[in-house]
Amino acid sequence: MAKARIFSGVQPTGNLHLGNYLGAIELWLSLQNKYDCIFSVVDYHAITVSQEPRKLKESILAIAKIMLASGINPDQSVIFQQSALSAHTELAWILNCTAHMGELKKMTQFKEKSAGQKDIVSLGLFAYPVLMAADILLYQTEAVPVGEDQSQHVELARDLARRFNHQFGQTFTVPDLITRPDGARIMGLDDPRKKMSKSAASEYNYIALLDEPDKAAKKIMKAVTDSGQEIKFAPANKPAISNLLTIYSLLSGRTIARLEEEYQGRQYGALKKDLAEAVKIFLSDFQSRLNEITDAQARQVLSAGAAKIAPLAESTLRTAKERLGLTLNNHR
Ligand code: AQP
Q1: What is the pLDDT of residue 330?
Q2: CB 183, CB 29: distance < 8 Å
């Protein structure tokens, strides 16, 4: 029996951080054997905010290498560059014509990213969730594994698929959302009320996957803590310690309950010291795998990935155009 298909992506913007890794990439790894997987470097999403062209080019390859170093197996899963397949933007246009301004205005990420920009915010940033819906729907995706911050966008993809199918006839699979039970939202080290974010104002917000391991350890030691002394998982009262426990649990494979037991009667400093060491080991191992991957390998994986899935993307686009009445004589 054919495996169900999943699709997910990462933007080539800035340094990927532990939130991206634990919330999304590690989740992908856990699904790799069970599903037919498509993972994209979503560069058209990146340009919804200003990017320096030379850096963007480097980041596209860097993300592909990070996926490979994380353990995504290109013989098993597809890794490709979004802009290599024009079907993404073509379908996005079609879906733009079915999406409502009102539902896009409600998107939390748009509100956060456009805050303070007023009228110079790009139309692309506003329409970002529609492009993401096109990314997902092109591949008849059954499920989308993402961090919690993307769940609203996946919900929109589901709504757009249902709307199109209802209006024009069955065309798209309605995808499910997959998030991990713990780690779907890793919080900032400097402010545990907000998610860890590449675009945070301070580099003490995040641990980047490319951070020098000693520097990353210092960031953990400088992370804010909560009032009191008890090491307990209680996100409402102890958001900072709960976040550190979540990260430590995911990196060490020990449950949060076990960590609470181990650190009973000990100070926050002891937890931070051990977590800093775990982060150092994780980053050293990760970076040594990363350093073995060449630009040429990453380029080859991206172009082979695009070639492999192009027929499926084109077939879904062709069906959508036919349903809309855009196809004459069965030609595109
Ligand atoms: N803090 C997080 N905790 C858990 N998962 C997270 N993700 C992002 N931040 C966290 C998940 O990582 C995947 C790739 O994210 P993206 O490249 O699309 O970027 P993003 O969601 O906009 O968040 P970033 O990486 O922090 O960038 P900025 O600063 O631009 O917002 C997604 O599955 C995402 O859910």
Answers
A1: 57
A2: no
Q: Is residue 191 included in any domain, yes or no? A: no
Which two tokens mark 241?
């310690």
- Check which CATH number belongs to the domain holding 65 and give it: 3.40.50.620
Counted domains in the chain:
2
Residue type for position 121: V
Residues 161 and 117 grouped into a single domain: yes
Distance CA 213, CA 286 (A): 10
Asked if residue 149 and residue 259 are part of one domain, the reply reads: no
| Same domain as 78, residue 148 | yes
Where helices occur in 87-212 by DSSP H, the ranges are 87-96, 101-105, 108-114, 123-137, 151-168
Q: Binding site membership: which residues?
A: 11-13, 19-20, 135, 147-149, 186, 195-199
Question: What SS3 state is found at 311?
Answer: helix
Per the structure, the complete domain to which residue 130 belongs is given by 5-179+295-324
Strand ranges (DSSP E) for the chain?
5-10, 36-41, 78-81, 143-145, 176-178
Pocket test for ligand 1, best of 72, 144, 197 (most atoms within 8 A of CB): 197
Using the atom order of ligand 1, give the atom closest to the CA of residue 196: 1
pLDDT tens digit sequence for 206-261 = 999 999 999 999 999 999 999 999 999 999 999 999 999 999 999 999 999 999 99
Q: Which amino acid is at 316?
A: T
The H helix count followed by the E strand count for the chain is: 14, 5
- Domain assignment present for 192: no
Among residues 186, 183, 185, 163, the alpha carbon closest in space to that of 174 is found at 163
- On whether the CB atoms of residues 186 and 195 are closer than 8 A, the answer is yes
Contact yes or no for 32/77 (Cβ under 8 A):
yes
**pTM score:** 0.95
